[in-house]
Predict the 3D structure of the following.
Amino acid sequence: SAVISQKPSRDICQRGTSLTIQCQVDSQVTMMFWYRQQPGQSLTLIATANQGSEATYESGFVIDKFPISRPNLTFSTLTVSNMSPEDSSIYLCSAAVARGGTTYEQYFGPGTRLTVT
Amino acid sequence: GQNIDQPTEMTATEGAIVQINCTYQTSGFNGLFWYQQHAGEAPTFLSYNVLDGLEEKGRFSSFLSRSKGYSYLLLKELQMKDSASYLCAVGNTGGFKTIFGAGTRLFVKA
């Protein structure tokens, strides 16, 4: 398994500013991901954080808005840029741990609750 | 593309058994996950089925039929603390990517 921590746990930010969320895993993991969960909804994948290269973004998400870094196998950051109230959400870091072959297990951090005013 | 369907809400009685169904359509199937999520908390991993059949883990069991694109999560001896959302998610062979369904909110009543 993997234990994942995130900082900050919550924040209230003003419109137009940016917030960087940090994610730390207690062991080296194969893949790291960033998800968003809006109130009452399920998880939406934002991007896959690739170690040493640019993140892979899902449809509807772009690098300019959500720049992601992954400098090593245990750490990643997500920045929410030029925030608007629509960005208010819970942002979740996730890590996939390979089980053998192509199979894997996936774990989540506690999330960062972001409110944009 | 991928499509995952599960019921929006279910209600069951404490001590009973409940089955939460999930159907999916995907390319590059790489296993099916079930997660539990209590309000305001992160999802907690429950199960991961790659092969057809039933896997039992305490009060929780998960079943997969790849040919039918179907899975279910079975919860036995329901407890009040089992009231939560249960998320069905499908893994993809392209980079261990996991896509989530909308979730089923389970209400356990006394």
Summary: Chain A touches chain B at residues 1, 30-31, 33, 35, 41-45, 48, 56, 92, 94, 96, 98-99, 102-111 (CB under 8 Å).
